[in-house]
Amino acid sequence: MIAALCKLILKLIGWRIPSELPGADRYVLIGYPHTSNVDFFIAMLAKGALGLRFHFIAKHTLFWWPLGSILRALGGIPVDRRSSNGFIGQLVQRFEKAKESGEPLVVGMMPEGTRSYREFWRSGFYYLAGEAGVPLVAGYIDYKTKTLGWGPLTQLSGNPEEDLAQLNEFYADIQGKFPEKAAPIRFRSALEKRG
Q: What's the 3-state SS for 86-151?
């Protein structure tokens, strides 16, 4: 019933989604570009239409009552970005427990970390996939074609420059609702961190 309703809404608003889910039980799903609040609603409709169960990371300030209860029910995990030490480690442990029990686990993250323009991506998703030993799936919301989808399962090489170059190539023709807000696909350099 929920899947049919979500499919109908997506069809009525003109959005297309893939018919198949990525072929793995455990992976990190990134969403790019993230330039509008509408992205979340399109993603949640697709999640419902496909029966895709995933957890997503969101800033802790969104988890106020009653919105917090709704976000948690949808799979939200709050994170305080000011003190996220140990957060990736906690998620790695979740993946380890899921693997031991044979349970599926998909964690969705927006590498930009915000809808506003940034000059780089946050690297948490990269370290999570690497440390948990799970593949990465590059998800997208393309407003140019009104298509939501994803690329193939990708095992990261451990070389961030090489992996980001592949992501740059994958996302080259994808356009967010506000293209000028899309962050360049790169991590902050050590010099930028110090300065």
A: CHHHHHHHHHHHHHHHCCCEEEEECCCCCCCCCCCECCHHHHHHHHHCCCEEEEEEECCCCEEEEE
The whole-angstrom separation of Cα 23 and Cα 176 is: 26
Q: Please, what is the end-to-end C-alpha distance for the chain in angstroms?
A: 53
pLDDT digits over 18-57, tens only? 988 899 999 999 999 999 999 989 998 998 999 988 888 7
Structure tokens given for 132: 């948990």
Quote the CA–CA distance of 166 and 119 in Å, as a whole number: 18
Q: For the whole prediction, is pTM greater than 0.85?
A: yes
CA atoms within 13 A on the CB side of 108: 19
90 closest CA partner among 138, 7, 98: 98
Pairing between strand 76-79 and 55-59?
parallel
- Over the stretch 54-107, which tens digit does the pLDDT of each residue have? 888 777 888 888 888 888 888 888 877 665 557 888 889 889 999 999 999 999
Q: What region does 62 belong to: left with phi over 0, alpha with psi -120 to 50, or beta?
A: alpha
Query: Token pair of 124, please?
Result: 């948490």
**Cβ atoms of residues 87 and 138 within 8 Å:** no
